[in-house]
Amino acid sequence: MKKTLLLIATLALSGLSIAQVNIADARTYTVGQTVTVSGIVTNGSELGGIIRYMEDGSGGIAVYDGSFNATRGDSVTVTGELSDFNGLLEVVNVSSHNIHSNGNTLPTPQLLTPNQLGETTEGELIRIDDVTFTNGGSTFSGSTNYNFTAGGQAGEIRVNNGSVLIGQTVPVGTVDMIALSSEFNTSYQVLPRDMNDFIVNSSIYLTSGVTQSNITTTSIDFDWTTNINGSSNLRYGPTAAFGTDINMGNSTSSHSVTMGSLTDATCYHVQVYSINGTDTAFSNTMIVSTAANSTGQMLVYFNKSVDTNYSTGLDAETVDLADTIAAYIDRAQTTLDVSMYNNDNAVIVNAINDAYTRGVTVRYVSDLTTSNFGLNVMNAAIPVHKGNNTGIMHNKFFVIDRDDDNNSWVLGGSTNITPQNLNTDFNNLIIIQDKALAKAYTMEFEEMWGSSGNTPNAGNSKFGEDKVDNTPHEFNIGGVRVELHFSPSDNVTAQLVRTVNSADDDLQVALLSFTRNDLGAEVLNRHNAGTDVKVIMENQFDTGSEYNYLETNGVPIFSHISLTGQIHHKYAIVDASNVASDPTVITGSHNWSTAAEERNDENTLIIHDATIANLYLQEFMARWNDILLEVDESTIRSADLKVFPNPSAGALNISYTLQQNQPVQVNIIDMTGKIVWQQQYTGTTGTNTINLMSTDLSSGVYHLQIAGDQLREDLKLVIAK
Fold first, then answer.
1. What is the pLDDT of residues 127-181, one digit of tens each?
2. 376 φ, ψ to 5°?
3. Sign (positive/negative) of CA torsion 291, 296, 302, 306?
4. Burial of 704 from C-beta contacts in 10 A (0-12 / 13-18 / 19+)
5. Largest distance between two CA atoms of the chain
6. Angle at the Cα of 377 (from 376 to 381), degrees rounded to 5?
7. What are phi and psi of 487, to 5 degrees?
8. CA–CA dist 138, 498 (Å, integer)
9. Residue-level pLDDT at 705
10. Tens digits of per-residue pLDDT, 626-680?
11. For residue 245, which of 260, 255, 235 has the smallest C-alpha distance?
C-alpha cells in the first residue's frame, strides 16, 4: 500500500481533517490522516462481516466500521481515518457518513489478468476472464483461499466467514469472474460477492463436481450432471496430455462413464466433458487411482489406555508407538520415505539407520525450524531436506516399499517421534498396507523433495502455499472407501466440514487445537440438529479457540488442559453407533486451524469403515471418562462390579464393593457414550446390591458403569428381549 506523504506539514501536525478529495488522492495520504470521500458502494453484507468497498471513478477503497451499514449500489459520503490492515488501505473510525441514494449503477469492472492485480486496482471491481479453479466441484468454505488460473497466470480468491458463497459449489470448468480486488500481507487476492459473480459463457455447463465410484484394479466409474442435455465423454492418460477418449454418444443431463482396461495401483489424469451443439462443458483435470492388488490391511494403535467396553468386536490396542514404528521400518526392503515434523527417538532413528545399512533407499523430509535432535544421530549419508518458510512442515508419515503389492505400508496419524508425543501425550497411529495409497503419499513426498530421485532438488521443491493439488483423493482399500487430502493445496477444511455435516446419530471430536469458525459452526449445527455431539480439546485458550463458542451454545465440550499429557490427536468420529449411516473417521496431522488449512504441510485420511470408527471410539470414551473424573488414571479404584443375568431380558442384579461409604452413580450407556439410564445410590462400605426389575432398554449392546469419588468401573451389558 502506498504511503506517500503529500500533506502540508502543519496539517499533519495539527491533525486537522482535509477537505473532501477523490479516492485516488485519498489513497496517497498517510495512515492516520482523516479523509472524506464519496462514491458508489460495491458490496453489502454478502462478503461476511462489516467491510464495504466503494469507488468514485478515480479509484476504490475499503471502509471498515460497524456504523457504516451500506448496501450494494448506495451513493455515499464517508469521513474517517485511514488505516493499514495487513496491506489493505481502509477507512476506519468513521465519524460521519451520508447515504445519498440507493440502487445506483455499479462501476464497470476493469478487465484484468491475474498478474495485473496490484496497488492500482485495490478496492475496485475487476473482471478476470477464462478462470479455472483448481478445486472446481468442491464446496466453498469460510476463511479459505481458492486458487485459480486464467491465461496461464495464477491467482486466488478469498472466501471469508459469513460469505454467502459458503456451501456453494466451486465453479467447474471455465468461467468469467467479477470480484473486488483486495490485499492481505502483500498477496493480492480477489473477493467474489456471490455466485452471480461467476459468469458461464457456454450454453452447457457442469452443475456438479465429478464423482468417482466402483474403483477396482482395472476400472473406475465417473458421474456428473449438466444444466441441459449433452453427450457423455471422458479423456484420460498417464499425463495431462491424456491420449485416450471415451465417447458415449448419448444425450442426457445425468452422465456416467466407465473408464476400463486400466492397470492396478496406477494414477491417471482424467477430464470429463459434455457437448451440446457447438458448445462444450469441460471439468477440471483430476488425478485418480485404480485399486491395488494389496491386502488392504488397516491397523490402529494408541499409546494410552482405551475402553474396550465400547468394543463391537475388535478391541482397540495400546502399544509402545516407538517399538511399533521401528518394527515396520524393519520390514522395509527397497524404499523408505519419512516426512516428520520432529524427531528425537533413538529406537526409530536406529531402525532408519539399519534400513539404510541393509541397502534400503531412505529419503527424509523435515521441518525447517524444529529441533530434530534425532537427526544428529541419523546416518549422515541419508539425505535430509528441510522446508516450509511460510508455515511448518507438520506431516507425520512413513512410506515403506511403495512399489511392492504386499509390503507397501503407510504409517500415519498424529504422533511426532519425540519422547513427549510417544510416551506422555495422547496420540494415534494408523498403518495401512496398500500400494495405491503408498504411491499417492509418495507423490506428495516428492513434491516437497523436488524430485523422484534419491537426492532432493531444492530448486524444484515445493512446500506450503507453493504446492498444488496433484494427488488422487479417492481409494478403494480392501473394499473400504478411503479419502486422502493434503494441506494446503487441497482445501481440506471443506472436506472436514462435509464429513462433519454427514453425522446423523453421533459425532466425537478429539483435537489439540480447534480454531476454525466454519468447523465450529458445523459442529454446532450437528448438535442443534439432534446429533449426539461430544468434543474434547486441549488448547482451550488458543487465540480464536472455538471452546467458548461451543460451550456457550450448549455443545458438550471439555478441555483436557488440566490433566497430565496433551490431547495431541486430530481425529473425529462420525456415526460410530449406526453401521447403516456410513461410520467414518477423520485422522492425520491436521489440527482444525487456519494455519493447517492455509500454510502448513499436513495430511488427512477420511476412512469410511465401521470397525475403524469403533476402534477410535474406544479411545475417545476412555479420554471422555477421564475428564469427567478429572483424576489421574492411576488413582482410579475398582469396585468389583458384577451384573447378572448377562445377557438380560431387562431385569438386572447389580453388585459392587466399596472401600468406604460414598454416593455412587450407576449408568447404563449405549455404544456412543450416551447415558440412556442412570440412578444415584448411597453406597456403603462392603458389598452393595441393586435389583432392577426392568430397564425399558431396547435389545442391543450397552455397558454398565459405576462412578464415585475416584471410582469408576465398566462392564459390557447385553440386552436381548
1. 999 999 988 888 888 888 899 999 999 999 999 989 999 989 899 989 999 999 9
2. -70, -25
3. positive
4. buried
5. 92
6. 90
7. -105, 155
8. 10
9. 87
10. 888 764 555 667 788 999 899 988 889 999 999 889 999 898 888 777 788 888 8
11. 235
Q: How far is CA 497 from the centre of its chain?
A: 7
Question: Per residue in 658-690, is it b (16+ CB within 10 Å) or e — as a string?
Answer: beeeeebebbbbbbbbeeebeeebebeeeebee
CA distance 381 to 622: 43
Between CA 399 and CA 402, with CA 400 as vertex, the angle to 5 degrees is: 85
- Cα dihedral across residues 430, 434, 435, 437: positive or negative: negative
In contact, 44 and 71? CB cutoff 8 Å: yes
Q: What is the DSSP letter of 30?
A: P
Place of cell 448506495: 74
* Nearest in space to 396 (alpha carbons), one of 332, 466, 325, 461: 325
Amino acid (1-letter code) at residue 228? I
Neighbours of 14 (CB within 10 A): 8
> Which residue matches cell numbers 485519498?
26
Predicted local confidence at residue 633, as pLDDT: 54
Strands (E), 437-555: 474-477, 480-487, 506-511, 532-537
For 46-71, the pLDDT digits (tens) are: 999 899 999 999 999 999 999 999 99
Q: How many Cβ atoms from other residues are within 10 Å of residue 523's Cβ?
A: 29
Alpha-helical regions (H) of 32-188: none
Cα dist. 307→620, 622, 678, 698 in Å?
A: 8, 5, 20, 23
Burial of residue 241 (number of CB atoms within 10 Å: 0-12, 13-18, 19+): exposed
Among 103-107, 109-113, 131-135, which stretch is predicted with the lowest mean pLDDT?
131-135
Kindly give the residue spans of alpha helices, DSSP state H, lying in 226-345.
Answer: 321-329
Residue 347 DSSP class? H
Instruction: Report the length, in residues, of the chain.
Output: 721
Helix (H, G, I), strand (E, B) or coil at 18: coil
Closest CA to 366 of 463, 467, 484, 438: 463
**Spatial contact of 203 and 277, defined as CB atoms under 8 Å apart:** yes
Q: What is the mean pLDDT of residues 376-383?
A: 97
Contact indicator for 446, 452 with CB cutoff of 8 Å: yes
Q: Residue 5 pLDDT > 50, yes or no? A: no
Question: Residue 498: pLDDT above 50?
Answer: yes
pTM of the entire structure?
A: 0.85
Q: Which range has the worst mean pLDDT, 173-177, 303-307, 370-374, 634-638?
A: 634-638
Whether 384 contacts 378, CB under 8 Å: yes
Beta bridge partners of 271: 235
The phi-psi region of residue 231 (left if phi > 0; otherwise alpha if psi is between -120 and 50; otherwise beta) is beta
